[in-house]
Design a protein that fits this description.
about 475 residues; nine-stranded parallel sheet; alpha/beta; globular; two-stranded antiparallel ribbon; 11 strands; about 40% helix
């Protein structure tokens, strides 16, 4: 009996396959994703990414099995199977990707996800991670240095997933770098320490590419350690070709509760984001900067460090997303410098800190943007929608919730009754431990005064006019 499915148009068959596999993935993936504001935990973006990754893995596994049933389905699913491929610094994985690059399927690859693995002290002597000459196999280097072998590649993602969960590993990683390294010491470290050699060799291999078609660069969980390549003018020139730049930064809490912003190497590295990256993004239209909850950026003072964005950077910028960034005069000046280009602004887990010398309240932030001539801005998103009016950490008890102050209960009812009402976050970076804490009295007072709300509403009205006009 003939298979009726094979007689359908390829587009319809692909739609049926996607529907079936999406249903399977939805049933197999149960991670929770919500929009709550969490000061010191995995945020909704990370949860959503984890959920998507799990769903994608299930879907890809079934898609590959299905493609093995016939040449027809192999050809039909090939653009989806090879759309995104992962490259690791192992001979086996590198050889597999080389095989793809040399095959007819190379044209299907749109995203290359590079994951360089050499955590901590190179596994304390484990041979395959202690040899700086073998840390980046030739097969892997050949792909990184010839991205043109994937002719339709659009997105390049780079990550070194250094995970330090034990106190002494974290201390080894950061405590060793409290004092600034000279250029000579950086060079020496990259020649003798495997995990640092891996970072330098990876970036140097990428620099050999010229006139590539890749338009999007993603750097995941940037480690707060200098890489010699970041000072290289060739690297700065290489950055100028990307239209999209997505940077997330490594965060950590040690075994005693100290946040990463209590370490000088973190503050020093973050203070140079402009010189290493932002100053050279001359073609960027889309920018994403995600600081960790353990080390928010944007202000000056104890445990703080400015973001390093200025009005003369990124002249073509249209879309901006910020995560765990404090509002500040510096940030406002950056926006005003892009009044003719900025179209969309998304802010997640961003807050005001009035305990610093240059902290500003939300209403001043909104008023300044309203009064500026941001003629292209047609979208503003601030998430989560409402900042908590009380400390909602895991230490609260049922009795605490039952005995909430009357003004807090009243504010909560107002937010529930009127979907248009908002509350905006006011926080502090704790001086000793560096953790981000909510300031209950400021959050509640700001909500009760209504000044933040009025300024926000005024700005949104202007944005709506821009949206309708454009």
């Amino acid at each position: 009996m003939a298979c009726q499915l094979l007689e359908l148009a390829p587009e319809l068959q692909l739609k049926i396959a996607n529907t079936l596999l999406s249903d399977i993935s939805a049933n197999e993936t149960t991670d929770d994703v919500d929009g709550t504001y969490d000061l010191n935990d995995e945020g909704p973006d990370e949860k959503l990414e984890r959920k998507k990754r799990g769903s994608c893995n299930h879907r890809m596994r079934d898609l590959m099995r299905w493609s093995c049933t016939s040449r027809f389905f192999r050809d039909l699913f090939a653009p989806h199977i090879f759309h995104s491929i992962r490259l690791r610094n192992t001979d086996r994985n590198g050889s597999s990707v080389v095989a793809v690059a040399q095959s007819q399927h190379s044209r299907h690859v749109k995203e290359l996800i590079y994951v360089g693995n050499a955590p901590g002290e190179a596994h304390k002597g484990e041979e395959r991670y202690s040899n700086t000459k073998r840390i980046l196999p030739e097969s892997v280097s050949s792909i990184l240095s010839d991205l043109g072998s994937l002719p339709n590649l659009q997105t390049l993602s780079i990550e070194f997933p250094y995970q330090f969960t034990v106190w002494d590993e974290w201390e080894d990683f950061l405590g060793e770098y409290e004092k600034e390294e000279t250029d000579e010491k950086v060079q020496a470290a990259e020649e003798t320490i495997a995990w640092r050699a891996l970072m330098a060799n990876t970036w140097n291999a990428l620099l050999t590419n010229r006139d590539i078609k890749v338009k999007s660069l993603i750097i995941k969980k940037l480690a707060p350690i200098k890489v010699s390549t970041f000072d290289n003018p060739a690297f700065h020139s290489w950055l100028g070709q990307f239209e999209s730049f997505n940077l997330s930064i490594y965060g950590q809490v040690d075994g005693a509760g100290w946040r990463i912003n209590r370490n000088w190497c973190y503050l020093r590295m973050m203070s140079r984001l402009d010189g290493y990256f932002f100053n050279h993004l001359t073609s960027v239209t889309d920018l994403v900067v995600k600081a960790p909850s353990e080390g928010p950026l944007g202000l000056e003072g104890i445990n703080h460090i400015s973001l390093g964005v200025y009005k003369d950077q990124m002249p073509a910028l249209k879309n901006l997303h910020l995560d765990y960034i404090f509002i500040s005069p510096e940030l406002i000046d950056f926006f005003l410098g892009h009044d003719k280009t900025l179209e969309s602004l998304s802010m997640r887990n961003c807050s005001a800190d009035l305990g610093t010398s240059n902290g500003i309240p939300w209403y001043r932030f909104f008023d300044t943007l309203h009064d500026a001539n941001l003629t292209k801005l047609r979208n503003l998103e601030i998430l989560p929608k409402n900042a908590p009016l009380i400390d909602e950490s895991g230490y609260r008890t049922v009795e605490d919730d039952e005995n909430l102050p009357a003004e807090v209960k009243e504010a909560r009812r107002a937010l529930e009754d009127d979907p248009a009402r908002r509350s905006f976050m006011y926080t502090r970076l704790e001086d000793v431990w560096g953790f981000l804490r909510m300031v209950e009295e400021e959050n509640l007072a700001a909500f009760q005064s209504g000044r933040d709300q009025a300024s926000y509403d005024r700005l949104m009205e202007k944005i709506k006019i821009n949206h309708a006009r454009l």
